[in-house]
Amino acid sequence: MAGNAFYAQSGGVTAVINATACGVIETARKSRRIENVLAGRNGIIGALREELVDTSLESRSDIAGLRYTPSGAFGSCRYKLKGIDDNRAEYERLIDVFRAHDIRYFFYNGGGDSQDTAHKVSQLSLQMGFPITCIGIPKTVDNDLPYTDTCPGFGSVAKYVAVSTREAALDVVSMAESSTKVFVLEVMGRHAGWIAAAGGLARDGNKGAPQIILFPEVDFDKKDFLARVRSSVEKDGYCVVVASEGARYPNGDFIADSGSVDAFGHKQLGGVAPTLVEMVKAEHGYKCHWSVADYLQRAARHLASATDVEQAYAMGRAAVEFALEGKNAVMPIIVRKKTKRYAWTVGEVPLSKVANVEKMMPRSYITKDGYGITAACRRYLEPLIAGEDHPPYKNGLPQYVTLRNKLVRKRLPTFDV
């Protein structure tokens, strides 16, 4: 079908999500069947409010510049559409907006919740007599989408965490004799420990930091943890800990639970690093420091993985190609080839199999003691952080693109979100 396409970014942004947007828009511009790509301002909220960015007004060079620009160029949101039965009005509003602007293609760039939304829209559009081709595009720094070998955004976060762990460890080593003996780096990962595992790449074989990694997949034992910290300090003179924000006790309680939830209904986390530091101080009296990677880990485009950038762009390109081939309610995925040297290709999976499903780290990727990564995990991770893809610099700073983001004229009544 000929018509316009709608593209939206969802959830936490990454260093490479704009590379995916670049892949979508550049590929769509080559097609005679996609007249224009309209992007949602602030994600799916933009569709509900009929705030649609006219990307045809953006220059070719600015769209190309998205490939090396971090964050979400059109704005993102944490807004989860409820089930169709619970809030049919929102889904009907989406279809009304798509119909009003002749949008025949829907590309939703996000995690599991976003794939669920794309799947539901594909179903309802048929029921309402305005069929829309819906393609999900994978994105999440947590690396927890199933079926795909990795998720665009993760490789760059993994690279940032591995580099930061190694550099911070050198700082601690140099000061440990008379100052800081324990350093804790808190990284993202609510239920899956992929990002924390990346810190393990900083370790040189069986030597160096981090001596301890805390995964959500391994129950936290306070007594054992404190004993391991002491033994590391006594052996090495210092101890570096990489802790996932989702580290939890055997009863399921998070070490750091703020008591609130986000728009997706997920518990708000943060604060595991200072909590661990207080434990260590109280038990051992060591001088400690802690840091939270937070937004820095997912915004660091200057340290992006070249592999990640290439894969992010490829997922955007593949999404458009799938749609033009007549595929619907699917998501492109990264398939690792079974070759000695790392290689990958593009595959696909039905959205129904991806929606709201999380991929945890296999136990075989975590050492028996629960505090490190295995050789198999290292073999999985290393190719994902490979290569550098630096943005252009001017006066010592990276030069990123800022789009015009001019909205098309509204055609429907206001809808409250």
CATH topology of the largest domain: Rossmann fold
Low-confidence stretches: none
Largest sheet: number of strands, sense, barrel closure: 5 strands, mixed
- The structural class is alpha/beta
What is the chains' assembly state? single chain
Identify the overall geometry: elongated
Would you report the number of β strands?
15
Relative helix content: 25-40%
Give the tally of structural domains.
2
- Termini, distance in Å? 30 Å
CATH C-level name of the largest domain: Alpha Beta
* Total helical segments: 13
Strand order of the largest sheet: 3-2-1-4-5
Mean pLDDT: 95
The amount of beta strand, in percent, is: 15-25%
Going by CATH, the architecture of the largest domain would be 3-Layer(aba) Sandwich
The Rg value, from CA coordinates, equals 22 Å
Concise structural overview:
This protein is an alpha/beta fold.
